[in-house]
Write a structure and sequence with these properties.
Layout: E1 4-11, E2 25-32, E3 37-41, H1 48-56, E4 63-68, E5 71-72, E6 83-86, H2 98-107, H3 113-126, H4 142-154, E7 161-165, H5 173-190, E8 194-198, H6 201-207, E9 210-215, E10 218-223, H7 225-230, H8 235-240, E11 247-250, E12 252-260, E13 263-271, E14 278-282, E15 287-290, E16 295-296, E17 298-304, E18 308-315, E19 318-325, E20 336-339, E21 344-348, E22 351-353
Parallel strand pairs: 3-8, 3-9, 6-7, 7-8
Antiparallel strand pairs: 1-2, 1-4, 4-5, 9-10, 11-14, 12-13, 14-21, 15-20, 16-20, 17-18, 18-19, 21-22
Length: 357
């Protein structure tokens, strides 16, 4: 296991980048704490895999350094970094049995066969392939091969870090849940530093101690699932985390008042003068539909998703979402919406602004 330090790290795929927009990964400084589980979360093309490949040594950064426990490994080959990486699509040796595929990383490092057999059996049990150990990998399906890749990544206990690049893409939904559970157990039992790339917020939030949200090549927030939900540091975090995501509404903010199309909304904190694009953000969970209280809203439709209802509505010409309880009554005369002031965030140019009491 290792503490991983990213020092002034950035990368461009262009030979002579001239501006920040030319960088696929914009400047990043961060310490990945030894033994924690991280998820890199963001939409396709945001820089997640670029960052992971720099950490693994498959890609050399355009600038900056990467350190493992204080040792500069920026130019060290992957083999010298003592990491295990599992890719989006399965990488297995087709001519080998499942057993030999799982055993390969251990045998390659000279471990004795008694230990190899015990560890392979343990991992095979974790990935549900005990009854396939003597089958050739060639005849297996894509999801079974990916389970072998996952198992081979997990079979060594002495790695500095385990890196996963969207490893559950080809796995069926039920097995995804089981393997995520097994990965969490592995982390709990052995304390490996784990970095897990995904665009699926459920995977990220259920797997990681800390979620690293990326947008347009930049890390916009690192935090616990609760922190990402309660106080999104960037409007993209609010939009991307949650289902539905945070409502982001253009507004004018003056002190502890927000004005939406001239209509006043009281805020829990006060704010100084704000420049540029100003918006408020409120999660659907903190909006309430009523007959008498709040600002005018027009309900378009109500979706019952079992645990709760999602109300799709129009608010001063903008689409917003409101979440109501499964047993809440929604009537045609409910045309007002109010927001929990303690959970209304203010943003300037997409970044969270801290208010004062």
């Amino acid at each position: 296991m290792a503490k991983i330090t990213l020092d002034n790290l950035a990368h461009s795929y262009l030979p002579n980048p001239a501006s920040e927009d030319d960088f696929a990964l914009k400047e990043l400084n961060h310490d990945w704490v030894d033994g924690e589980a991280y998820a890199l979360l963001g939409s396709s093309g945001c820089g997640k895999s670029t960052l992971l490949n720099i950490i693994s040594g498959l890609l050399h950064p355009s600038q900056g350094r990467i350190l493992f426990d204080g040792k500069d490994v920026t130019h060290a080959p992957t083999a010298e970094r003592n990491i295990a990486q599992v890719f989006q699509f399965p990488v297995v040796y087709d001519t080998m049995t499942v057993h030999d595929n799982l055993a390969f990383p251990l045998r390659n490092r000279g471990r004795d066969e008694t230990y190899v057999a015990e560890r392979v059996q343990e991992i095979a049990r974790m990935i549900g392939m005990e009854d396939m150990l003597h089958r050739k990998a060639r005849g297996l399906g894509a999801d079974q091969k990916q389970k072998i890749s996952l198992g081979r990544g997990m079979v060594r206990k002495d790695v500095n870090a385990l890196l996963f690049d969207e490893p559950l893409t080809v796995i069926d939904p039920h097995m995804k849940w089981e393997l995520r559970t097994q990965l969490k157990k592995l982390h709990h039992d052995f304390g490996h530093t784990m970095i897990y790339v995904t665009h699926d917020q459920t995977e990220a939030l259920t797997f990681a101690d800390k979620v690293v949200v990326m947008y347009d090549g930049r890390v916009v927030q690192i935090g616990t699932p609760e922190e990402l939900f309660e106080r999104p540091e960037h409007t993209f975090v609010g939009y991307f985390i949650g289902s539905p995501g945070m409502n982001v509404i253009p507004a004018k903010v003056d002190g502890n008042r927000a004005y939406i199309d001239g209509t006043e909304l009281t805020l829990a904190q006060g704010y100084g003068p704000l420049d540029g694009k100003v918006e408020i953000g409120v999660r659907p969970e903190f909006a309430r539909l009523s007959q008498t209280e709040g600002l005018p809203v027009r309900v378009r439709r109500v979706e019952d998703v079992g645990r709760h209802k999602i109300i799709r509505a129009e608010f001063f010409g903008q689409d917003i979402n409101i979440i109501a309880g499964e047993d809440d009554r929604i009537s045609a005369d409910m045309n007002r919406v109010s927001f929990d002031a303690a959970h209304v965030n203010v943003y300037a140019n997409d970044w969270l602004v801290r208010g004062a009491a």
